[in-house]
Write a structure and sequence with these properties.
- The complex is a heterodimer of chains A (282) and B (326).
- By secondary structure, chain A is mostly helical.
- Chain A is built from 15 helices and no strands.
- Chain A starts with a helix and ends with a helix.
- Chain B is an all-alpha fold.
- Chain B contains 14 helices and two strands; from the N terminus they run ααββαααααααααααα.
- In chain B, strands 1-2 form a two-stranded antiparallel sheet.
- In chain B, a hairpin with a 7-residue loop joins strand 1 and strand 2.
- In chain B, helix 1 packs across helix 2, helix 4 packs antiparallel against helix 10 and helix 8 crosses helix 10.
- The N terminus and C terminus of chain B are likely disordered.
- Classes of the chains: A mainly alpha (282), B mainly alpha (326).
- Chains A and B meet through helix 1, helix 4, helix 5, helix 6 and helix 7 of A and helix 2, helix 4, helix 5, helix 6 and helix 7 of B.
């Protein structure tokens, strides 16, 4: 009996690790195959199988060539500007809105929450049909500030993370500050805002990854790929005549993925907890 | 004379009022909500209203409009490439069932002590953080004849000649695309499920262990009931997600060879052919379908939670309340 149990346990354990390894392999295989290809010279790429390892792991020629051809220097500058502006603006308006919705009861409070909730259910691709017309009228096509405002205006997930966080901050803090004669603005900025730091970090990471990876809006509204490439849209360079030079393309892809990888490795915990917090509310 | 006094008095009270608690409240509410509400209006509700009105016109982004009544809607249902494209959603629904199953399996495993658990979790989650365009290129490369996928299959003993063209063969290419979506999102679902499982009181497991419950029983009687809500929530999201499937065909095949989902066709009609009216009608039709589907699911959801077994703990109930709100 005991031996049977033991054998069963071993089989289960083997099965468990087999599936874990198999799916981890599946998860990394497409990216690793790109990495392998990115280090190959043209000659090697044409003559060897894609899964054959490159002769040298120090052949960075494709990377520098992809970086130049796809104008990725410009793209990184644009993406950084967009990222910083979006994070600053959406943090300020998101925390302020969450403060008002959580701390004050007024007519329309629930209605406003529901309006934001309903907005998050509308599929973005469909909305862009008419947003495009509005962006044209506002003269926001090929304008980085216009694109930034559009991104700030469409995603509201962080509001739920902030509201949830406010729920756990004791209201007696506000009340004692009122006793001391503080007004609501200084309560928010001097007392509550600093306490929100963990929630701000979490939602900035999520929003940051989302903004960095955003490409549909960028390809519609930043059409001038020479002047306004973002890291994601700069990869469009490889559509067309370069479309079969996969050693070059893969190098470009790896460059574009690298920042997300670095952020992931350094902030795993916040990313996981941020996702969970956002999902429960969403 | 008297009115003057009255006016003066009123002015003073306004000043007083703005300095009073109530006035300050209104001030802070207005100041903090003006911009987000403006953005919400300009980028969600205004376009939404415009889309409804566009759907009754024959129009481009620039130039004259012509009122055509319901013609666009009739076209949506009669044209071969519009409404019929929705049947591709079935592939994506199937994919999301598989995806949720895989995610649930690994979430259960990784919630308990596992050697290298964090590494496995990280590897399976990372695809979620890759940008859509890169995913498109990665899988064009991956599925190319004789490239990555074919090579790996040949290691497993498959003969290249018997393998289909993964992105061209119409019998298989939609499965290939759905596969990329499963690949990208199952890790993210898994992380959500792990979060839900972790929030179950660990004393429950200890009690179950003492009672001699096996791993499967623990899963069946403790884990599953307590994360039922988040699973159902994900099922709901995945159904509307399947109806609005867009990215995999858009970035990998551009909708060629019978892979054009409803939204890919709609994008093409709106931004390439510039038939804005027809595209708007398509969008409205799909929104109505999603809306109806959500209501039906919500009713089912309520039924599950009132007639099913009572929620295990208050947390599950709270989640249920929240979920049923939408």
């Amino acid at each position: 009996m005991n031996i049977l149990m033991y054998i069963k346990k071993i089989i289960l354990t083997v099965f468990k690790y087999f599936t874990l390894i198999l799916f981890s392999f599946i998860s990394v295989l497409p990216v690793v195959s790109c990495l392998i290809t990115a280090f190959k010279t043209d000659k090697e790429y044409n003559s060897t199988n894609v899964m054959t390892l490159p002769s040298s792991w120090l052949n960075f020629e494709n990377f520098s060539s992809a970086f130049k051809q796809a104008n990725m220097g410009r793209a990184f500058i644009n993406s950084t500007i967009i990222l910083i502006c979006v994070l600053v603006i959406s943090t300020i308006i998101g925390t302020q809105l969450a403060y008002v919705l959580n701390r004050f009861s007024f007519t329309g409070n629930t209605l406003i929450r529901n309006l934001f909730l309903f907005a998050s259910l509308l599929p973005g691709v469909a909305m862009q049909i008419s947003v495009y017309e509005i962006m044209t009228k506002l003269n926001f096509i090929n304008s980085i500030p216009g694109y930034i405002i559009m991104i700030c205006g469409t995603d509201v997930i962080s509001i739920y993370i902030y509201i949830q966080f406010f729920e756990n901050i004791d209201k007696s803090l506000d009340e004692s500050a009122i006793m001391d004669g503080a007004n609501y603005f200084s309560i928010f900025y001097k007392i509550l805002f600093p306490l929100l730091k963990p929630a701000i970090v979490t939602s900035c990471i999520l929003k940051g990854v989302g903004t960095y990876n955003e490409y549909y809006g960028a390809s519609l509204y930043l059409q001038d790929k020479k002047l306004y490439p973002t890291v994601a849209t700069s990869l469009y360079t490889f559509v067309g005549p370069l479309g079969s030079k996969y050693n070059l393309i893969c190098a470009g892809l790896i460059i574009s993925i690298l920042p997300a990888l670095i952020v992931f490795i350094s902030c795993q915990k916040q990313i996981y907890s941020g996702l969970t917090a956002g999902a429960v509310k969403g | 004379m008297q009115t003057k006094v009255k006016a003066k008095k009123k002015k003073r009270t306004f000043k007083e009022w703005i300095n009073s608690r109530d006035g300050q409240k209104v001030l802070v509410i207005t100041a903090f909500m003006a911009i987000p509400l403006l953005l919400l209006f300009v980028f969600t509700y205004l376009p939404f209203g415009k889309m409804v009105s566009f759907s009754f016109y024959d129009m481009k982004y620039v130039g004259a409009k012509k009122f055509v009544g319901l013609k666009n809607y009739i076209k949506v249902f009669t044209r071969d490439d519009c409404f019929k494209a929705l049947r591709l959603s079935l592939y994506y629904m199937l994919g999301s069932v598989v995806q949720l199953g895989i995610a649930l399996y690994f979430a259960t495993i990784l919630s308990f002590k596992t050697r290298g658990g964090a590494v496995f979790k990280g590897l399976m989650f990372f695809p979620y953080l890759i940008n859509g365009i890169a995913i498109g290129f990665i899988f064009k490369f991956f599925y190319t004849r004789g490239f990555v996928f074919d090579t790996v299959l040949s290691w497993c003993g498959f003969n290249l000649e018997n393998l289909p063209y993964w992105l061209k063969d119409q019998r298989i290419n939609n499965f290939s695309l759905v596969g990329t979506s499963v690949w990208r999102y199952f890790g993210q679902n898994m992380v959500l499920f792990i979060g839900a499982i972790m929030s179950v009181d660990s004393e429950l497991y200890e009690a179950a262990m003492l009672d001699g419950a096996g791993k499967f029983q623990q899963f069946r009687y403790i884990i599953l009931p307590s994360i039922k809500t988040i699973i159902l929530l994900n099922v709901i999201l995945s159904i509307s997600g399947s109806l609005s499937a867009f990215e995999p065909p858009y970035v990998i095949t551009s909708g060629a060879n019978g892979t054009g989902t409803y939204f890919v066709v709609m994008h093409e009609i709106a931004h390439t052919q510039q038939k804005v009216g027809l595209a708007s009608a398509m969008a409205i039709v799909l929104l109505v379908i999603i809306f109806i589907a959500t209501i039906i699911q919500r009713l089912l959801f309520k039924y599950v939670f009132t007639d099913g077994e009572p929620p295990v703990d208050s947390k599950a109930k709270r989640l249920a309340d929240k979920a049923s709100k939408f």
